Amino acid sequence: MTRISPETPAGAATAASAPWSIRLRDAVVRYPNGVVGLKKISLDIEAGEMVSIVGLSGSGKSSLIRTINGLVPLSSGTLEVGGHRMDLARGRELRRLRGQIGMIFQGFNLAGRTTVLNNVLVGRLAHTSVPRTLVGAYRQRDRQLAFEALDRVGMLERVYHRAAHLSGGQQQRVAIARALAQEPGIVLADEPVASLDPPTAHAVMGDLRRINRELGITVLVNLHLLDLARGYGTRLIGLRAGEIVYDGPAATATDADFERIYGRPIGDQDLLGGQSAAPTGTPA
Amino acid sequence: MSAAEYPGLPAKPGGRWKIWLAIAIIAAITAVTLAPGIGVDFSLDAIVRNWRNGAEKIGQLLVPDWSFFPRTIEPLIETLQMAVIASVIGAIVSVPLSMWAARLTNPNRITRGLVRTILNIVRAVPDLLYAAVLVAMVGVGALPGIIALVLFNVGIVVKLVSEAIESGDPGPGEAARAAGGTQTQINRAALLPDIWPPFINQALYAFELNVRASTVLGLVGAGGLGLLIDAVRTFYRYDQLALIILEILVVVVLIDWASAAMRKRLK
User: How far apart are CA A238 and CA A223, in angstroms?
Assistant: First the structure.
């Protein structure tokens, strides 16, 4: 699956930029309606890590992910991504940093009525001028990156299809290609498989693991199913009520650890099932 | 009583008095507007008194003057040209304005409020009034008609399309923002593709309204069939007026039918 299109030399792989680290210090997120998303979190994520973030809905895992690319602003504290102060970035600088961070959403967030290619080219907006965007005249290099990203997730054949005509799993792959086309240093995924059936969920999680391993990109994935979190992440962060309650290797996290994160006994509803995709061996 | 109907059935919610109150208020307003002295001078006497006059006119209207047809062709085509030109210009102008007027595509409260306020004012003025003022400004002819129709069009299309944008999916825009796009880039690359269908739908609807409106704008000197209507009406040629009305009817029905067919295919 690591096909590289023949026009491009192998050196120009999709992740041209080096992977980025993330550094949060005393990060607080308080929403305008008074709800606290994050309570003074400090966290270091090294470049190239694959981190599963688990917690119940409302635990702050969505706030954490969205803070990292500035979609949710910090109320206090500091945030560095790849050595740049994200919390201080505004305007052009903020857009430039966001351009280096890919994001994958639960609902895919594709423009349904346009082509797969146009959707993937959205990943090149930070590198495209406004006039070029307005007339849809993307540069040849940006189109190449889009083709390459689609090839990598096995969706090159569908390049001229309408996004809405694809299945859920295919749409999520196009969304991954959109993130890859950014040549990102970090990829954030917010519940990427929550609307997919189990086999498709494993396939999409496999894609995410591959971009982490083969391209070295730092990957953060929000999940609520513990077998996916254990099987695909190398590091596991558990959030509860806006605080980090677990931080350790994913493979050795026990059911008791999950019960502590969730604050209740775990059961079948916390497992996806399907094919076991953990190469490191699933703990009992 | 409810317990008898079904055991455990909760009591019916109250509030039916509100409906009766609404009916009472409407009845009161109607009574006041009809009251002699305060209300409009409205009585059915006029119909009874002038029925012979009315019947005569209806009789003339029932016999169209077909020989008048060649003289109506040119104004009819002018009317359609006005409607087409105004619809196209109005549609083009409406695309950016709709995006500036919707929160999803313009998060800036100040510029959004400004655009919305201006459009509310534009929409509040009737098209015939625009035409009358514009005729005084730029002279008799098709031009004031076209400008009046464009203003009328933009008011309607922007309101309907910006509402359609608001009810749309914010997801693609969020993805484009996360990828580092400016608001203009987000609107163009991620949101515009899904806005096209409601936009074309409303633009076609506005075209239908334009065809109708353009037939009467000439009454105030703004070109098209209206000028001719005004002329034949002045000379009491109801047989010729009948022909014009018939032509408008056919054109409007044809355009409505074609537009409806196009909108159906769009879905």
Answer: 10
